[in-house]
C-alpha cells in the first residue's frame, strides 16, 4: 500500500478494500480488511530494528549481485522529525539508493550529519556491493571508506572538496578548466528541470596523471 502511494492508515485501509480480491491470494480475509485503527495498532507492535533487518534481507534477494548497478549513498535530515517539547533533534538518515532499480536498498539512522563518516561503513556492511559503483558526496570522501568499498569488491566515485585539502588542490592543479574543455576527453551532458530551474550537468572522463595514481587521502 505504501509503495502504491498510501500515506496514512486510512489510505492503507482504502488500498486493502480496493484490492481485496488480489489480497485474498495471500490470506482468507474472512472478515474483510481490518479498519485503520487495527492496522495502526498491529504495525506499532512491530520492532523497527527487526523490520529493518527483514527489509534489508528482502532487498538483497531482489537486488541481484550480478547487475552493474550504481549505488548512491547520501544523508538527509527528515523534515518535521524534531520534537522541541521532548528536546529531540531532527532525525538524520543515511540511505543507499539503487539507481538501476530506483529503490532505497538500505538505510541507517544517525544523530546528526557529522556522524555520516562513521555511519557509511555500517551501511556498507548491510549491502552486497561486489561489482558495483558507490557514489557519495564530499563528506564520504575518506580513506577508510574507499578501502572498505574495495575490500567488498566494489568501486567508488567520490566528490572531492575542501575536507581533502591536498587532494582538492592537486585536482585543481592537474585539471584546470581549459584542460577539461579538451575535445579529446570523453564527455556526457544531461539537462533537467529541478527546484524551479534548469540544470545542466557535464561529466568528463580524463586519464589520471601519474602524479595522482599513488596520491593518498588525508
Automatic annotation (TrEMBL):
GO terms for molecular function: DNA binding; transposase activity. Pfam families: DDE_Tnp_1 (PF01609), DDE_Tnp_1_assoc (PF13808). Belongs to the transposase 11 family. This is H repeat-associated protein yhhI. It comes from Escherichia coli 2-460-02_S1_C1. Coiled coil: none annotated. Signal peptide: none annotated. Residues 1-59 form the H repeat-associated protein N-terminal domain. Residues 67-187 form the Transposase IS4-like domain. GO terms for biological process: DNA transposition. It comes from the Bacteria.
